Amino acid sequence: MKNNVQLITYVDRLTGSDIGALHSVLNTEFKDLFSGVHLLPFYFPIDGSDAGFDPIDHTLVDSRLGDWADVKALGEQYEIMADLIVNHMSAQSAEFKDVLEKGSDSEFWDLFLTRERVFPNGMTVEHQEKIYRPRPGSCFSEFELNDGTKVDFWTTFTSNQLDIDVTSEAGQKYLTKVLSTFAQNKIKMLRLDAAGYAIKKAGTNCFMLNETFDFINQLTLDANALGMETLVEIHSYYQTQIEIAKRVDQVYDFALPPLILHSIFSQDTKALAHWLTISPRNCITVLDTHDGIGIIDVGPMEGKSGLLTDEQINQLVEKIHLNTQGDSHKATGAAASNVDLYQVNSTFYDALAKDDYHYLLARAIQFFSPGMPQVYYGGLLSQVNDMELLDKTNVGRDINRPYLEREQLAAQMSKPVTSALVELIRIRNSSSAFQGEFFIAANSDCIEMRWVNNNDMANLTANLSSRNAKVEVTQGSKVQVFELAKLLIV
Fold first, then answer.
1. pLDDT reported for residue 48
2. Domain around 480
3. CA 286, 280, 260, 454 torsion: positive or negative?
């Protein structure tokens, strides 16, 4: 995919409509801003228990959004990233209903992972304590078959998300079917959702095992053979992430968002600058996504120091809660049915106390960081926390998953902070310097980030204490200087 800024969005939550409407928005309101778009789950159904990440049918476009012809038409003009939900599928799927009815006689029996398949000799307390899960409690859910037999099926996330046995013939057949469908309909990149949990092995933590890498590598080869690239979605300890990046095509830089917040809050660039000297270069950068702001990615683990200390992380989280006037606290952790307890749920704009300058600075740092930048639809429009939706659903991540109507877009795009962000996107997309070599220098509250490609250069300098930052772009003999504060003046 092109190293330009890309959009992350739900189809219906941005437009209030379908894929055709999104295509129109990209060509009009968002004209010439994005070379690609990450379409968050558009499979049937989009309104399951996890906003589409629990597909009943992974190969069927939800008819409320359109069909594969609409996806293909979008893919003719924009590079599309789509989620390959590797680890699980819905308990409401036809395949699992067949298992409940027929038990081991079902042709799909081997598609779903049971406790007994991983622990044929029984699971000990020690076995269970080793298993890594992003939420407390058992990773199994008991289901009763039609004949009255009760079976423990593996459910890493929720009881409606049945883990797939990706090592089985049925699991391989299922994934091959999804891959083929995507390739036939102009999908360019696959986001391997929850891939780190895909392989389970007795006596291990069942997360990012050597066998998991083998599985991801083979899945990537299969995707590459069909003309698609892959992106692995994994939250983990930062040194683990560096090692993971060496073995896959693309990873997310999930450490970047909390480190940018820490730098702005503390006016100290040390941790951020250190990370950007060692961070993977084959990465996708984000500030916000459909999920929360990750914390585990910068924290210590098992006695090993992190990019931030526990005290710094606590200060970071409390500052976010203070900036949002407690709204993020209501949406985070056990407070609101969260799948992942190690994330803070808030819009990035609200996390920065709706400070337009700090928000624009955060985006500038993201765009100058190594990697391919993506901007979430709520972040593009500097949306505030949707407390009405949170109160309605009691799903923590819904605080940052607003439902918008197309009629609202013109007003949202004309806001000074959005207009300034659009200018930054155009700068990032138009400079060939970002195809070159990256340099970084930092001293206390000051940071300089530079890209050089032959005679082209892009430079970001920022003093976090004085609220003074500027972008300087050199293309041949032409030099342009953009002061961030002035970009906010309409």
1. 85
2. 437-487
3. negative
Q: What is the pLDDT of residue 392?
A: 95
User: Domain for residue 274, yes or no?
Assistant: yes
Q: To which residue do tokens 């970084």 refer?
A: 440
* Contact call for residues 417 and 380 (beta carbons, < 8 A): no
For residues 25 and 33, the answer to whether their CB atoms sit within 8 Å is no
Strands 229-232 and 88-90: unpaired
pTM above 0.85, yes or no: yes
12, 165, 233, 386: the active-site residue: 233
As a dihedral over the C-alpha atoms of residue 47, residue 48, residue 54, residue 55, rounded to 10 degrees, the angle is: -70
CB 61 within 8 A of CB 43: yes
Looking at the structure, tell me whether residues 237 and 385 fall in a common domain: yes
Q: What is the pLDDT of residues 209-261, one digit of tens each?
A: 999 999 999 999 999 999 999 999 988 899 988 988 988 889 999 999 999 99
For the domain that residue 130 is a member of, what is the CATH number? 3.90.400.10
CA-nearest of 45, 55, 82 to 161 is 55
- For residue 233, indicate whether it is catalytic: yes
By DSSP bridging, strand 79-85 and strand 187-193 are parallel
**Separation between Cα atoms, residue 487 and residue 410, nearest integer Å:** 19
Q: Residues 55-58: contacts with CB within 8 Å, 24+ apart? A: 55/85, 55/89, 55/90, 55/93, 56/89, 56/90, 56/92, 56/93, 56/94, 57/93, 57/94, 58/85, 58/89, 58/174, 58/178
Which of 130, 163, 196 is a domain's end point?
163
Q: What is the CA radius of gyration of the chain?
A: 22
Residue 364 — very low, low, confident or very high, per pLDDT cuts 50/70/90?
A: very high
Q: Are 300 and 309 in contact (CB under 8 A)?
A: yes
The answer to whether 37 and 27 have CB atoms below 8 angstroms apart is no
Domain membership flag for residue 270: yes
Active site residue 193: yes
Catalytic residue among 83, 110, 163, 193: 193
Sign of CA dihedral 111, 114, 118, 120: negative
Rounded distance, CA 429 to CA 484, Å? 17
Domain boundary among 139, 163, 187: 163
